[in-house]
Design a protein that fits this description.
Elements lengths: L30 E5 H4 L7 E4 L5 E4 L9 E5 H7 L1 H4 L9 E4 L8 E4 L4
Parallel strand pairs: 1-3
Antiparallel strand pairs: 1-4, 2-3, 2-5, 5-6
């Protein structure tokens, strides 16, 4: 690949202040985790955790086996389950929401990653 001429800069490299209204560290979504049972429609969402680092867990709360967990982008899960997650989109970092089944209300409480 040829280097660009010296007077051309790459469009993704910006110099100076961050122009987008939020910190650079917040610009990329944190990887999140989802249960394959939930994503596949085999189990409902029963446990949602919003970690202090901004990542999320979307779980069925039936297994903690890592073979059934995948890395996702949280926005994709919010889009896939709009009715289930509408009330949780603004869940504060460091919180979890839990429910027995889809007809139950979400119960929210503080969550510590430690």
């Amino acid at each position: 690949m040829l280097d660009p001429p010296p007077d051309v800069t790459h469009p993704r490299v910006r110099r100076g202040a961050w122009p987008y209204g939020r910190a650079v560290s917040d610009a990329r979504p944190q990887p999140s985790i989802a249960s394959t049972f939930v994503l596949g429609g085999l189990e409902p969402l029963r446990l949602v955790i919003h970690h202090a680092d901004g990542s999320w867990d979307f779980l069925c709360n039936t297994t903690d086996d890592a073979r059934f967990l995948v890395t996702v982008e949280a926005d994709h899960v919010f889009t896939q389950f709009p009715a289930d997650l509408a009330a949780l989109r603004t869940l504060p970092s460091g919180s979890l929401a839990e429910r027995e089944d889809p007809s139950s209300d979400w119960s929210v409480e503080p969550y510590d990653d430690e």
